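## retry 2 of 3
previous attempt timed out at serialization; input unchanged, resubmitting
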Amino acid sequence: MSGGQRKAYPPTINTPGRRAMYDLVSEDETIAIQIDSAIRGSAQDGWRSNPFKQRKVRKALEKAVGDDRAGEALELAKHHVEY
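## retry succeeded, writing output
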């Protein structure tokens, strides 16, 4: 992409967090939404600073997308305030 062009995302990839996950999983829309749903469904207030709450999020990610992607998705999610 050059200049001010923005990358085009599918309509369901509509938040910064989902865009980050979409890019992480090589533009697989279904997996990106599964990751987003797993995080949103398991993250509790203060999860970033609490190892027990982080473990709950990681387990949800592992169940949704497997061990291979769970760690990367968790680290990425820590940097997005929407989670």
